[in-house]
Design brief:
about 80 residues; mainly alpha; 2 helices
Length: about 80
């Protein structure tokens, strides 16, 4: 049985540095875990870097929001043209 767990920490660890722990499991839980559970598959979102206006915000979600906003502005201008 696969159990998926989505973790979205309040304090994002970015930029992520080599060797930074991103997931820990206690020794007792590890002893009872199956072989597959001992090697979880982790995925990460890309985020804008430090010093950016949208610092730490998810890249794809933010760009999608910009796309929608620009599309709305273009539609408004297109509707105003004779």
């Amino acid at each position: 049985m696969d159990i998926k767990l989505l973790l979205n920490p309040a304090n994002s660890l970015y930029p992520l540095r080599d060797g930074t722990p991103v997931f820990r499991i206690g020794r007792e839980a590890l002893e009872h875990a199956s072989k597959r559970d001992k090697h979880p598959e982790l995925t990460f979102d890309l985020a804008f870097g430090q010093g950016e206006i949208v610092e730490g915000q998810p890249l794809l979600e933010t760009l999608d929001g910009y796309f929608v906003s620009v599309d709305e502005v273009i539609s408004q201008f297109a509707g105003a043209l004779p």
